[in-house]
Design brief:
Length: 328
């Protein structure tokens, strides 16, 4: 039986026109999410993760962005054009980093949720919409949903606002949910609650998920597969358990090693150096200036993804992924 994909991206390129020149952020990237699959996307700030998500959601401002691809398909339908955008809006929802900027501060929660429902399910009675809103808030364990519906965003805590955003993402019954750092603006005391809630709802309703997060523990816990991104390129991807237990790319190794441990011990110094300039992109591997395994070939030849598993489910983009640092 042929696999069914919630999302397929083929040869995505994203550039930005700025005063100094053109930022060549994503040179050509492939990514896919199967129906019902939970996928993580990890990497340092500035690696292009949000650019991918915004390109999929068709919300990148053009200009300054210059976006091109061979295909971006949602459930086999290209997102370009009126039909594609209609499919995108019905089947894909996003949960953004900061709920304070995701909600209109001048409108009550009920008004904002009503707008989502009317666009997705037109023609229903007001009482039906009210029940759907209440049920949506109850699904995310929101206390006193009726009071929340009559409130403005500023009257709610950060955790409650993010629950509202998750409820708004789910009430339109999407098939794919894109969560871009959904706990960045939250206190650490409720961060795990929100992630556990999102995990439960995605699994319970059999939704597809793309989770972007710097909390690698959450990615390890919530996802089936993970893409590791550096400077606009996918440098490694595979099953989450394989990537976290036996990473192959030197960047993946450094990223996981730098993640804080619960014991507070064994914390690495992090990855030395800085990410490249997207205006003056060097030849060869974009990670070469920071890599402990760098060789002459890395400076001149751009690596491509190679199979680490017979079925191609685990791939790495590195000339020296088989070389141990101790042997250099």
């Amino acid at each position: 039986m042929a696999e069914k994909f919630a999302l397929q991206i083929t040869n995505l390129s994203v550039k930005y026109k700025v005063y100094e020149g053109t930022l060549q952020v994503i040179p050509g990237l492939d990514l896919f999410v199967r129906e019902g699959e939970r996928v993580g996307l990890i990497g340092e700030t500035g690696c292009g993760k949000s650019s991918i998500l915004k390109a999929v959601a068709s919300v990148l401002p053009v200009p300054p962005a210059i976006v091109s691809s061979d295909a971006i398909e949602v459930f086999g339908n290209p997102i370009g054009g009126r039909v594609g955008l209609s499919i995108l809006r019905k089947n894909v929802s996003m949960v953004f980093q900061d709920p304070s900027t995701s909600l209109n501060p001048t409108l009550k929660i009920s008004t904002q949720m009503m707008d989502v429902l009317k666009a997705r399910f037109p023609g229903k009675r007001k009482s039906e919409y009210r029940k759907m809103m209440r049920d949506g808030l109850e699904a995310v364990s929101m206390p006193a949903p009726e009071r929340v519906l009559g409130s403005y965003p500023i009257q709610l805590s950060g955790g409650m606002r993010q629950r509202v955003c998750i409820a708004m993402a789910l009430i339109k019954d999407p098939v794919l949910i894109i969560a871009d750092e959904p706990t960045t603006a939250l206190d650490v005391t409720i961060e795990e609650q929100i992630l556990d809630l999102l995990d439960y709802l995605v699994r319970e309703k059999n939704k597809s998920l793309i989770l972007v997060s710097h909390a690698l523990g959450a990615v390890r816990k919530l996802t089936d597969r993970v893409y590791v991104m550096y400077a606009g390129n996918i440098v490694e991807f595979g099953n989450t358990a394989d990537i976290f237990s036996n990473p192959k790319h030197p960047y993946t190794i450094g990223l996981i090693a730098a993640s804080p441990k619960l014991t507070g011990e064994g914390l690495a110094d992090g990855i030395a150096g800085d990410i490249i300039s997207y205006i003056n992109v060097p030849d060869g591997c974009r990670f070469a200036n920071r890599c402990p395994r760098v060789s002459e070939k890395c400076q001149t030849s751009t690596p491509v993804l190679e199979n680490l598993s017979p079925d191609g489910s685990w791939q790495v983009s590195c000339h020296n992924h088989n070389i141990e640092e101790a042997a250099l």
